[in-house]
């Protein structure tokens, strides 16, 4: 079985924005952001359509039920989650900048 992957909230919102624009296919979005399954995109879109935008910020495997959101975690758990978030964001920004650089070299 594969490892669960965490996507920052900004990535999820950007995926939703690109899907709503109608100019991007699931395959193109998956390639751009390194998403492994189109069902992940469909889940985020379902949350958006149902007005459950708060779910985009929730951690892997934890649901906001019975008042047990990330604010109930210990300070150490919150810091670990922030470190994971920033590492993923930096990794994705690096990939984006590399793709953008290649694109400019190709078309300029």
Features:
108 residues; mainly alpha
Structure report:
The structure is a single chain. This protein is mainly α. It has one domain (9-107). It is built from four helices and no strands. It has helices at 9-21, 26-33, 38-49, 75-107. The radius of gyration is 16 Å and the shape is globular. It starts with 8 loop residues before the first helix and ends with a helix. The model has no long low-confidence stretch (mean pLDDT 83).
Describe the secondary-structure layout.
Elements: H1 9-21, H2 26-33, H3 38-49, H4 75-107
Helix pairs in contact: 1-3
Briefly say what this structure is.
With 108 residues, this protein is an all-alpha fold.
Taking the alpha carbons of the first and last residues, their distance comes to 43 Å
- Count of alpha/pi helices: 4
Secondary structural class: mainly alpha
Proportion of residues in extended strands: under 5%
Could you describe the largest sheet, including whether it forms a barrel?
none
Estimate the mean pLDDT confidence: 83
Q: Evaluate the radius of gyration.
A: 16 Å
Overall geometric form = globular
Tally the beta strands.
0
Total domain count? 1
Low-confidence segments, given as residue ranges, are: none
């Amino acid at each position: 079985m594969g490892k669960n992957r965490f996507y920052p909230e900004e990535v999820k919102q950007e995926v939703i924005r690109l899907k709503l624009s109608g100019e991007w296919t699931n395959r193109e979005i998956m390639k751009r952001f390194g998403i492994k399954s189109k069902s992940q995109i469909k889940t985020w879109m379902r949350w958006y359509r149902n007005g459950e935008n708060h779910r985009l910020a929730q951690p892997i495997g934890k649901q906001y039920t019975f008042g047990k959101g990330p604010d109930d975690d210990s300070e150490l758990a919150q810091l670990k989650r922030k470190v994971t978030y920033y590492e993923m964001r930096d990794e994705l920004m690096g990939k984006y900048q590399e793709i953008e650089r290649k694109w400019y070299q190709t078309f300029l």
